[in-house]
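Researcher: Structure for this, please.
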Amino acid sequence: MTQKIIQREAGPAKQNLLNMLPSDAEQLVRDFAVRSGEKPFRGPQVVKHLWENPAESFAAMTDLPIAFRNLLAEHFTIPRLTLAMRQTSNDGTEKFLFRLDDGEFIETVAIPEGSRLTLCISSQAGCALQCAFCATGAMGFTRNLQMFEIAGQVREMKLLDPPKQVTNVVFMGMGEPLMNWRAVDPTLTVLNSASGLGI
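Model: Predicted structure, token format:
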């Protein structure tokens, strides 16, 4: 008896709305909304939930019609960083260990000082420079982070319960940011943009 193996062709990959500038994401969703029979204002409405007032998922964007939320989930993605560990020191400094989709880990540190909250973010998994004073250098270099993984560290602070309102960001986590300028450059735009994180 001959068995036929039927393989479905994989559909187009979902587009990551967090891995593009807010202005590009807005235009993309606006065009998608119009093609789907929705109003153009759905573009900025969705973008507001990416960075400014982040939602955990499309399902959590409750100001959108449920049918459109389902459509968004079919065509786009807004990936989270997985919190693997969280530690707090006596002075209130908190260290977060995030696991990435490929199993790599990065560190993010929140340092409170008066009304300020400075977040030290990573731009690489590991580091190739091997500075003698740095433990990260001894780990070796694994890969550069993508824009959504760098800016996502700040986004995750807003998704904590209760959320942390970051006022300052420094690239002093894992890695050397200038060695990953292709991703760091647009990350700075997301950090500063009024339609991004607005820092």
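Researcher: Any notable elements?
Model: The first strand starts at residue 15 and ends at 16. The domain at 16-77 is CATH 1.10.150.530 (DNA polymerase; domain 1).
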